[in-house]
């Protein structure tokens, strides 16, 4: 494994102390494998000529340029990484420059360190492209543990609710047989979240006001609210998963949970990618039976965003206009996570 022992900036024609020598073999047929959110393995083929003279590899790793990016924006400094010549494939690992779900370009050079400290180098290889992976369950468990620290005490709840505009509910009745349909989750939250842009579900809220024990009358998402009894969505036939933990440059934090009916396509998706929670015993949202009645609790100190992975018929609940305000500034639609927050970030990218 290679953990980036050094960095070289610039190119071989400009760097002092680096000379060019054609005899060193040029890497070709580069292969990238075992890609994670913050590491990858790399190997290549080389001619045997002068192979025994190689002491180091130079790797030029850069974020792939976004064609839509602002041309006046400061560009990332190219990163030339230096590694001792080790058996291939070699592992490149480094959370300070590798981010999840990000496209990179990479090229390789062989080098021979001379007695005076200078390097003789080969030509650069061809440039290839690859994309880093999403957070794994290991990374999400780290986020989960950080979220548990600030979740706070549990408050009772009785309903899940979903705010939308009147037109949304009218369209649901007219075109979807009265059933709200799952849609692909947007890109809000952590950049490495495996559910963003992939998981299909219906967004619900469940937080209550401390003084009333009922849902707040204000909403960022529309003046009409669908309310449904908690037990109709969340019960022993439902699996619960931790999806994400983030903030938007604010003091309060969001936790994304996924509720999936056991054995459903959404359940299979989450089972492979997300940490599963005990529905009776976790820090965020619980469902338990007391005296033959289902009782529900939610964490007080985080805002829960709950994704339900199956269609939900409007006849299972009620739709009514809220009496409060529509607070659009609190919307989390495609919201970007604050990468500097120590509370909700882990050390493998953002």
TrEMBL record:
Residues 26-135 form the Fibronectin type-III domain. Transmembrane segments: none annotated. It comes from the Eukaryota. InterPro entries: FN3_dom, FN3_sf, Ig-like_fold, PHYHIP/PHYHIPL, PHYIP/PHIPL_C. Belongs to the PHYHIP family. May play a role in the development of the central system. This is Phytanoyl-CoA hydroxylase-interacting protein-like. The lineage of its organism: Eukaryota, Metazoa, Chordata, Craniata, Vertebrata.
């Amino acid at each position: 494994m290679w953990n980036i022992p050094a960095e070289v900036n610039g190119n071989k024609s400009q760097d002092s102390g680096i000379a060019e020598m054609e005899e060193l073999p040029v890497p070709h047929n580069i292969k990238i494998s075992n890609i994670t959110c913050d590491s990858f393995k790399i190997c290549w083929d080389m001619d045997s000529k002068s192979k025994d003279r190689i002491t180091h590899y130079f790797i030029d790793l850069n974020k792939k340029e976004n064609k839509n990016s602002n041309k006046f924006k400061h560009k990332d400094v190219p990163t030339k990484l230096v590694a001792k010549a080790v058996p291939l494939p070699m592992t490149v690992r480094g959370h300070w420059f590798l981010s999840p779900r990000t496209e990179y370009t990479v090229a390789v050079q062989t080098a021979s360190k001379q007695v005076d400290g200078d390097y003789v180098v080969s030509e650069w290889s061809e440039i290839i492209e690859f994309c880093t992976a999403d957070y794994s369950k290991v990374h999400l468990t780290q986020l989960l543990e950080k979220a548990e620290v600030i979740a706070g005490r549990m408050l009772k709840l009785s309903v899940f609710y979903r705010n939308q505009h009147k037109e949304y509910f009218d369209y649901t009745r007219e075109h979807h047989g009265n059933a709200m349909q799952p849609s692909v989750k947007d890109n809000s939250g952590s950049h490495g979240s495996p559910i963003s842009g992939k998981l299909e579900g219906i967004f619900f809220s469940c937080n209550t006001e401390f003084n009333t024990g009922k849902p707040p009358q204000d909403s960022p998402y529309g003046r009409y609210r669908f309310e449904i009894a908690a037990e109709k969505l969340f019960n022993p036939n439902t699996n619960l998963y931790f999806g994400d933990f983030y903030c938007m440059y604010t003091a309060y934090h969001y936790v994304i949970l996924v509720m999936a009916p056991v054995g459903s396509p959404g359940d299979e998706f989450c089972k492979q990618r997300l940490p599963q929670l005990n529905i009776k015993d976790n820090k965020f949202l619980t469902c338990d039976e007391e005296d033959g009645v289902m009782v529900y609790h939610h964490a007080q100190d985080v805002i829960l965003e709950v994704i339900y992975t199956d269609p939900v018929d409007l006849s299972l609940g009620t739709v009514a206009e809220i009496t409060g305000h529509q607070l659009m500034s609190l919307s989390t639609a495609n919201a970007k996570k604050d990468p500097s927050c120590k509370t909700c970030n882990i050390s493998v990218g953002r």
